[in-house]
Amino acid sequence: MPRLSFAVRILFACCLFIATANHIRADVSHGLLWDYGYGPSTYLASRIFWGALTFFDPLAALLLFIKPRAGIVLTVAIILVDVTHNTFYVALKQQWLEPFYLSQVAFLIVVFLLSPIAWNGPIRDVALTNPVRV
Q1: Does residue 134 form part of some domain?
Q2: Using one digit for the tens of pLDDT, what is the confidence trace for 74-114?
Q3: Residue 56 CB coordination number (10 Å)
Q4: Which of 20, 29, 60, 89 is the most exposed, having the fewest neighbouring CB atoms within 10 Å of its CB?
Q5: Which residues have a Cβ under 8 Å from the Cβ of 76 and sit 6 or more positions away?
Q6: Contact assessment for residue 76 and residue 83, using Cβ atoms and an 8 Å cutoff
Q7: What's the CA gap between 61 and 33, in Å, rounded?
Q8: Where in the sequence is the domain holding 23, given as residue range(s)?
Q9: What is the phi-psi region of residue 133: left when phi exceeds 0, alpha when psi lies from -120 to 50, beta otherwise?
């Protein structure tokens, strides 16, 4: 199980680093508070949220290995809030089948299905390296 937990965390981290690269590319091309093509009526809070993902995505990826449970919690929070938030804009523009949205929904499903495996691994790692002696 510890190896499986580690593999799941690697998968999560890879996805988060890909998202980070996308956000950095957008930030360099359009600025940190870009509207992601939704126009000037895009809420400032949305622009701040999207810009903040440039920092929170890699933080979550690093925490998956430094503090695994904190990394899992942050990963779940990021993708849940991201999909919920983006669904508002997707609905406005009827973008339900756009690859960016489908990939986010797919990652949300993967995170929710595999997080229990990733969550249980760190406990077992400690138990295997520090057995209880009677």
Answers
A1: no
A2: 999 999 999 999 999 999 999 999 999 999 999 999 999 99
A3: 20
A4: 29
A5: 111, 112, 115
A6: no
A7: 22
A8: 2-128
A9: beta
| Sign of the CA dihedral with 7 first, then 51, 24, and 106 last | positive
User: What is the number of other CB atoms lying within 10 angstroms of the CB of residue 78?
Assistant: 21
pTM of the model: 0.87
Query: What value, to the nearest 5°, has the Cα angle with vertex 87 and ends 85 and 89?
Result: 85
Q: Output DSSP code: residue 41.
A: T
Cβ-contact 5, 122 below 8 angstroms: yes
Locate all alpha helices (DSSP H) within 1-134, ordered by sequence.
2-30, 44-66, 68-93, 99-129
